[in-house]
Amino acid sequence: MSSKLSTYANLIVRFEEELKNIEKNIADDGKKLVIFSESLATEFKGVAEEVFNQISKEVEKNTNDKINELSKKFSEERDKKITEIKNKGQKNMEKATDFVLKKIEEVFK
Question: How confident is the model at residue 1 (pLDDT cuts 50, 70, 90)?
Answer without folding.
Answer: low
